[in-house]
From TrEMBL:
<dbReference type="InterPro" id="IPR011904">
    <property type="entry name" value="Ac_CoA_lig"/>
</dbReference>
<dbReference type="GO" id="GO:0005524">
    <property type="term" value="F:ATP binding"/>
</dbReference>
<dbReference type="InterPro" id="IPR045851">
    <property type="entry name" value="AMP-bd_C_sf"/>
</dbReference>
<protein>
    <recommendedName>
        <fullName>Acetate--CoA ligase</fullName>
        <ecNumber>6.2.1.1</ecNumber>
    </recommendedName>
</protein>
<dbReference type="Pfam" id="PF00501">
    <property type="entry name" value="AMP-binding"/>
</dbReference>
<keyword id="KW-0547">Nucleotide-binding</keyword>
<dbReference type="InterPro" id="IPR025110">
    <property type="entry name" value="AMP-bd_C"/>
</dbReference>
<comment type="similarity">
    <text>Belongs to the ATP-dependent AMP-binding enzyme family.</text>
</comment>
<dbReference type="InterPro" id="IPR020845">
    <property type="entry name" value="AMP-binding_CS"/>
</dbReference>
<keyword id="KW-0436">Ligase</keyword>
<keyword id="KW-0007">Acetylation</keyword>
<feature type="domain" description="Acetyl-coenzyme A synthetase N-terminal">
    <location>
        <begin position="12"/>
        <end position="68"/>
    </location>
</feature>
<dbReference type="Pfam" id="PF13193">
    <property type="entry name" value="AMP-binding_C"/>
</dbReference>
<keyword id="KW-0067">ATP-binding</keyword>
<feature type="domain" description="AMP-dependent synthetase/ligase">
    <location>
        <begin position="70"/>
        <end position="463"/>
    </location>
</feature>
<dbReference type="GO" id="GO:0019427">
    <property type="term" value="P:acetyl-CoA biosynthetic process from acetate"/>
</dbReference>
<dbReference type="GO" id="GO:0003987">
    <property type="term" value="F:acetate-CoA ligase activity"/>
</dbReference>
Amino acid sequence: MKNYVIHDLPDYFKQYKKSIKNPKKFWDKIADENFVWYQRWNKVVKFDMEEAKIEWFKGAKLNITKNCLDRHLAERGDKTAIIWESNDPNEEAQYISYRELHERVCKMANVLTELGVKKGDRVCIYLPMIPELAVTMLACAKMGAVHSVIFAGFSASAVTSRVNDCEAKMIITSDGSYRGNKAIDLKGIIDEAVEKTPSVEKVLVVKRTNTEVKMKEGRDVWLDDYYPKASADFVTKIMDAEDPLFILYTSGSTGKPKGMLHTTAGYMVYTGYTFKNVFNYKENDIYWCTADIGWITGHSYILYGPLTNGATTVIFEGVPTYPEPDRFWAVIEKHKVTQFYTAPTAIRSLAKESSSWVEKHDLSSLRVIGSVGEPINDEAWHWYNDHVGKKKCPIVDTWWQTETGGIMISPLPFVTPTKPTYATLPLPGIQPVLMDEKRNEITGNQVDGNLCIRFPWPGIARTIWGDHQRYKETYFTAFPGKYFTGDGALRDETGYYRITGRVDDVIIVSGHNLGTAPIEDSINLHPAVAESAIVGFPHDIKGNALYGFVILKETGESRDKDHLRKEINMLISDTIGPIAKLDKIQFVSGLPKTRSGKIMRRILRKIAEGDFSNFGDTSTLLNPEIVDEIKDGRIN
Ligand code: WTA
């Protein structure tokens, strides 16, 4: 990778200026000098922010897997591409070379072809963090199929709605998965999910736990019956720059999850460029991102970004606390990890343990440590800095989103001086702006507002699968001409950004984005429930936890409220997944509503937080008396 690296702060400012003054020239050079193409583009970028139509590198022909795999074979064939670390520390790690990964991907692409998958078909992947997850994603990319990975913690009905939304032809899953000391019946969840997914023709099953599962004749097939016989030669499909690469679902303010569509060339260029710079990546590094591949962080910074750079990337199947709360530190020591990238919620939960768990491991291989997914609080930042980075490793607090494809605002290690809780400066090519409620740009420093981005960058999602109108409305209408992130931010006196959190109805719990609407919808399915409202409240480890206010159809004092609470949480767990369960449920006789019928969530938020000091203007409330009732009944 040439002309790619930012060396110091003056160089950053120089590159940044160049990228803003002439984005076309900037990205043209990066794309040209660092990736392999079958054919060059005619136009670097074409966009219409009103219509939310964005195209990068139009006319180019490529395949991302040529960049992730094939091109490394000559020089790095024997280099380890993936280190796979099992949930069980006694199971041997796998070291998969670039040559072997390439071979596995070609064989897998042949298996998928034999089972009827073609270019443009959607394939849902519901797998634990095992090598086959990476292999099947890359196989899809190699053959031009569109992968849609569904986090393997989602419930059957969450899987059903995603599979139906993208009309997937195939689901790839495993018999089961291991998480800590638990074994989870993944195939059973898929069996339930596929009952209502007419588009699914085949379910391909990978063996992981060797547990007994039901196989439906004609629909379900074992990978082991196909893979050993598959040829290792596969002719890579030639893709257009804007051909879909993958769909990844994210929560929105309204009920239905949004299938964010990322396309091929821009995503590849952006993740490759940002990986190299944000992690100060060097040829012999061992890079580890602890995210699940089922989230965008895993797509961009376990798989595609590292592999286009020819890096060694660790895939970890387990959890931070199994078998003991030092598993992360043990893995860093074992594999001599140089870059470690995790989430504030993991940092907070490990910081609660005795620091002897960290001290007993040699973490001297670390050079850069990172954080992603939610704001990192001061205390967690310092603990991470002191105990993990030993005050020597810069912390890259990376702000970005499923929609942005790659990191947008982040310090560059050894370049940008860090500041606790600040994501600091935008990467080259990224133009953040703060907007007020009246849609005016807030200029100057020491200000806060709604975070928007002014000009497109190559990694931005192109649409919501099957619903361009919703894409346009969600991201491009609140502040015309700009991409609206849904986050609030402040800019300090030096121009550093600090992300303050969501300004919409998305709540981030343990780093997972949860929309209030789908959770409310699922609570309302309970026969005893008339209406409900969910808000977030601060939680020491999870960042936010969920507080539900629930109106029952009949107040009936006789009902066992604790039993009802359990039933409501079970319902949420079944329809969305255990991550969306509520920490507190308060039964109320009404909700504070405006005259137009809108729930005034800011009042509920204050009550959930236990802050009764100032409810702000309540004059537009239809039923102001309800506020006292709810306040008095608050659960501590
Ligand atoms: C939040 C994850 C503060 C933010 C890559 C964003 C952050 C949402 C940070 C996207 C950070 C992510 N500091 N907040 N460093 N990183 N967020 O789509 O609210 O799962 O909008 O993408 O996470 O979450 P998503």
